Amino acid sequence: MKVGERLPNFLRWGVMLGLATLGLGIALRLSTGVGFPLETVGLFIIVATPVSFLILLASKGLSGEDRRTGFLALITLLVIALSVMVSLR
Amino acid sequence: MNFALVRFIEIILSGVGVGLLSSIAGIGGGTIMVPLMVLVLGIDVKVAIASSLLTIIVTSASSSSVYLKEGLVNLRVALTLEPTTALGAIVGASITIGLPSSVVRKVFGVGLMIISVIMLLRTFTKPREGGEVKNWLLGIASSFFAGVSSGMFGIGGGVLKVPIMNLVMGLPIKEAVATSSFMVGLTASSGSIVYALQKLVDPVLVLGFAMGIIPGATLGAKSLKGIKSKYIKLIFSMVLLYAGIKLLL
To answer: Which residue in chain A has the smallest CA separation from B186?
Structure first.
């Protein structure tokens, strides 16, 4: 399956957005001495970026372009979700 | 100058060093980052592993977006191997969280010694030309252990994934490197969810290292011309072996 130009950019810009949010959170904490949830949001964006990319890949594949790749992406997502749920118990 | 600012600059500079070394030695940043955080910066081994995994997501996303655009990533292979790899990463992260830091330090030391031996073997092993993809089951099974090592030690796991895809499954070396780079981000993401939920990630470390690694790796790639990477890899695997022994003692 060809992913084109836009989908890979999502990966790069996703982590950049996460880093920028993280940087803003750290700068605010260091300058004001008060913790802000922005740091947690930044970390969340970084962790969620590859998983969100997988969701986009699955939906692109399953919508008809390459069903097999889409199905494999869906399985990967399910395994990640299930394993995290089990490790939380 | 503010102590926090000095510490942050120290972390960024360490990140530049990690980026430079990893691109010259042709390995992922985690193998250098975690020992550096523990032995030089004096950070707890679990926090170092967790923060390293988060940083790896950033570096992997940057490189794999380029590989994806160039069509070098074999998505079928990546997505077939990734479910067991992600599962392995979550199992590895859970093992590390369950162990005391002193034990994790020793286990990491042993892991680092094994990685240095693999690096040494890879330096003297000629990569395969590649052809039809084969040995799927063996690839899927061994990917689980690459995932465990990633989750347990805070490394990308490319040191195992690339030989699995190239030597076992028959992927051309360029394709194996690109596919591994894409998988590393997903694997690190799975493992880091477990660490983040335990609040083991240090945001300052993640930002500092990510800010340093990206320019460091670019600088390393530019200075690579003219350097005999075989000798660099040889010296580097010796340094890793020494770091492993130091962590064990």
So the answer is: A50
10 Å Cβ neighbour count for B98? Answer: 9
What is the distance between the alpha carbons of residues B202 and B224, in angstroms, rounded to a whole number? Answer: 32
Span B80-137, pLDDT tens digits: 999 999 999 999 999 999 999 999 999 999 988 988 888 888 777 777 776 788 889 9
Token pair listed for B76:
């079928």
Q: Which tokens is B119 given?
A: 């690096």
Nearest Cα to Cα of residue B48 among B112, B3, B4: B112
In three-state form (DSSP H/G/I as H, E/B as E, the rest C), the secondary structure along chain B is CCHHHHHHHHHHHHHHHHHHHHHHHCCCCHHHHHHHHHHHCCCCHHHHHHHHHHHHHHHHHHHHHHHHHCCCCCHHHHHHHHHHHHHHHHHHHHHHHHCCHHHHHHHHHHHHHHHHHHHHHHHCCCCCCCCCCCCHHHHHHHHHHHHHHHHHHCCCCHHHHHHHHHHHCCCCHHHHHHHHHHHHHHHHHHHHHHHHHCCCCCHHHHHHHHHHHHHHHHHHHHHCCCCCHHHHHHHHHHHHHHHHHHHHC
For residue B71, list chain A residues with Cβ-Cβ distance below 8 A.
2
Candidates B60, B186, B196; nearest CB to A54: B186
Distance from CA of B147 to the nearest CA of A (A): 12
Closest chain B residue by Cα to residue A2: B71
The amino acid occupying position B148 is: V
Q: Is B71 left (phi over 0), alpha (psi -120 to 50) or beta?
A: left
CA distance A63 to chain B (A): 17
Tell me the one-letter amino acid at B13: L
**Residue listed under structure tokens 């330090």:** B105
Q: Quick: pLDDT tens for B60-74.
A: 888 888 888 888 899
